[in-house]
Amino acid sequence: MRKILVVNSKGGCGKTTVATNLAVALASRGDDVALADADRQKSSLSWVKRRPKGLAPIEALNWTKEDSIGDKDKKLDAIVIDGPGGLRSELARNLIAEATDIVVPVLASAFDWDATLKFLDGISDIKRVRKGKADIYVVANRINRRSTQVADLEHTFSDKGYPLLCRISDRVLYARHAAAGSGVFDYSDARSHEIRGQWHPLLQAVD
Ligand SMILES: Nc1ncnc2c1ncn2[C@@H]1O[C@H](COP(=O)(O)OP(=O)(O)O)[C@@H](O)[C@H]1O
Ligand SMILES: [Mg+2]
């Protein structure tokens, strides 16, 4: 079973957006998926509550407390974890130490880069990551077609040894899905075909 942790000490970078859409992508292809919420704001748990009945089922797990963490259900194919804000907490370190895949969203705003690079260096000290048992994937989020910052982001992160795996566009449709308890993989409409394609490198990586 994969344990895919979406985490970054920087708030607002898209952890919940990436976690919910990733859970949908896996569930909609028939995987048994749980979405574990380890963030105090419990945004992922609320999102599951809003999820319409007819869509691919996603089990919700409340992992906001240290003692609630656990893969009680080994029959699952994957647990996607919406990670806590800070890295210093015991909870964050334990989750990182247990994850098979670590997904780190970053915005194309220079204010976010230093914090995210510090965070990446911080997690590379954790045993499982150091031993290469957990892979780290950096996902550039809220990319604007007209912005030139993504090229700078690309260079800055590659130079430090963290090449970007995917680039997710800034689209109002993500906010709409967030409100509706759904994700871009719940519907196969032609209009968002290109948007779904942006997730493929990440889906391949966690396979
Ligand atoms: N790719 C995107 N395009 C448009 N809006 C986005 C995108 N990713 C995130 N958002 C919006 O940005 C805000 C913060 O995202 P969220 O996933 O809640 O971040 P976090 O969980 O890291 O705090 C939310 O309002 C969300 O809808
Ligand atoms: Mg969140």
Question: How would you sum up this structure, described in words?
Answer:
- With 207 residues, the protein is an alpha/beta fold.
- It has a single domain, classed as 3-Layer(aba) Sandwich (Rossmann fold), CATH 3.40.50.
- The chain is 39% helix and 20% strand.
- The protein contains nine helices and seven strands; from the N terminus they run E-H-E-H-E-E-H-E-H-H-E-H-E-H-H-H.
- The longest helix is centred in the N-terminal third of the chain and has 14 residues, at 15-28.
- The model has no long low-confidence stretch (mean pLDDT 91).
- It binds adenosine-5'-diphosphate (ADP) and magnesium ion.
- The site of magnesium ion (MG) has 5 residues, from helix 1.
**Poorly predicted residue ranges:** none
Mean pLDDT: 91
Residues in β-strands, percent: 15-25%
Estimated structural class: alpha/beta
CATH 4th-level superfamily:
P-loop containing nucleotide triphosphate hydrolases
Small-molecule components bound: adenosine-5'-diphosphate, magnesium ion
Count of helical stretches: 9
Proportion of helical residues: 25-40%
What is the terminal-to-terminal distance?
Answer: 11 Å
Enumerate the strands of the largest sheet in spatial order, edge to edge or round the barrel: 3-2-4-1-5-6-7
Total number of distinct structural domains: 1
SSE diagram, text form:
Layout: E1 2-6, H1 15-28, E2 33-37, H2 43-50, E3 59-62, E4 78-82, H3 90-98, E5 101-107, H4 110-123, H5 127-130, E6 135-143, H6 149-159, E7 164-169, H7 172-180, H8 193-197, H9 200-205
Parallel strand pairs: 1-4, 1-5, 2-3, 2-4, 5-6, 6-7
Bound molecules: adenosine-5'-diphosphate and magnesium ion.
